[in-house]
Amino acid sequence: MKTKRMLAAAFSACLLGSGLVAAVSGGNKAAADAGSPEGKVLTHYAALAHAVYEDSLITAQALQSAVDKLIAGPSEDTLAAARAAWLASRVPYQQSEVYRFGNAVVDDWEGKVNAWPLDEGLIDYVDAGYGDASEENPGYTANVVANAMFTFSGEQIDASSIDAALLADRLHELGGVEANVATGYHAIEFLLWGQDLNGTGPGAGARPATDFNTSDCTGGNCDRRAAYLKAAADLLVKDLAWMTAQWTAYGPATKALVGGDAAEGLATIVTGMGSLSYGELAGERMKLGLLLHDPEEEHDCFSDNTHNSHYYDALGIRNIYLGEYRRTDGSMVSGPSLSLLVAAISPEADMALRERLDATMAAMAELVKSAEGGEAYDQMIGEGNAAGNDRVQAAIDGLTAQTDAITKAAEALQLAGLEFEGSDSLDDPEAVFQ
Q1: d(CA 21, CA 187)
Q2: What is the C-alpha R_g of the chain?
Q3: Which residues contact 373 (CB under 8 A, 6 or more apart)?
Q4: Contacts of 127 (CB under 8 A, 6+ apart)
Q5: Which end of the chain is more exposed for a tag (fewer CB within 10 A), N or C?
């Protein structure tokens, strides 16, 4: 039985203080002055969000075009091009995830585009080893691609027409089951690669291009599989276009952040950094899989791209603290940063956090180096792979140490009552095995 639980526990980082010190803000519950140090930081934070989501949109549009070409002319070349476009699209998107925690507009939306893990049997054919039933999910093997009608908890679901409305409005999180992921990057990833049946051995998914070839079809239902892939790619573009618009200079997310309370705005930035660093990345995405030695807990599990996924998540945290982001066209966006605010109050706290961020990136680079050398992330977390386990643990240790430094930086800013997301895999490892 596959592990599909999201193990989240509250990791409290209750910070002392009752408002920002004078160097940062004029007082508690004060609206940010656009010309003040904190106002400039908040405005630039929003500009970085717009840049990273715009790059995510641009690369998703390139993926959409590659998918169209694959469907129009299925071949190993067009499949490889679509896979390459998917991999490229992950680079900017993963750097955006630091905006999720603290920004409700992002967190409420994120499940449409990056929800995981998923029960892929909902979407398409799976290997017999996947199993044929799940007590938690009646849609575990619904196989929408093969079935124009299927039953879910006694209800007949009409899937005769595979389009965006079916995926987004009917299938995604069907029955309130989070593992019923019908949209977003990972649904597309599964359709492009297929299942990775190698466990903790070498190799990723190996779906053939003929799975989309209606005149020489493997896997059956190639027309419906192609329709699903196209609908998912089109939805991804639509969803990213919406989020990009939220962060324009006059977009709702920007206006709410920049026009709101200055201390709360800075707390939003710190909460995103700490929660992604600790509970989400170090905990749910890394330590859990390492404890279980389970490739099913790998983030980009079909494509074996998890090393890059983790690297760019960590880079996103660093970007936000330093106020910089290198766009996919090579240009650099930089400006007033949280680092400058912290340094003005506590140079020691700023330097400590910078050093921790750099150490984490060095540890993440080792994961990338290993993967590019032939040992994928799912192999690194395999049972008995002491060297691989140690590399992953070093990155986890870097993330937890930098979270401590994030907490110290927040204390320097006297932000009150922050709470970072946690994970049982870090806070209560024994609970993982219960």
Answers
A1: 46
A2: 22
A3: none
A4: 195, 197
A5: C
pTM for the full model? Answer: 0.92
Helix and strand element counts for the chain (H, E): 16, 6
pLDDT per position as a tens digit, 104-113: 999 999 999 9
- What type of residue sits at position 249? A
Rounded to the nearest 5 degrees, what angle is found at the Cα of 130, between the Cα atoms of 203 and 289?
60
Q: What is the pLDDT of residues 314-367, one digit of tens each?
A: 999 999 999 999 999 999 999 999 999 999 999 999 999 999 999 999 999 999
Cα 273 off chain centre by: 13
d(CA 119, CA 337): 40
Q: Is the pLDDT of residue 73 over 90?
A: yes
CB-facing half-sphere around the CA of 32: CA atoms within 13 A: 25
Q: What are phi and psi of 419, to 5 degrees?
A: -135, 120
pLDDT digits (tens, 9 = 90+) for 398-413: 999 999 999 999 999 9
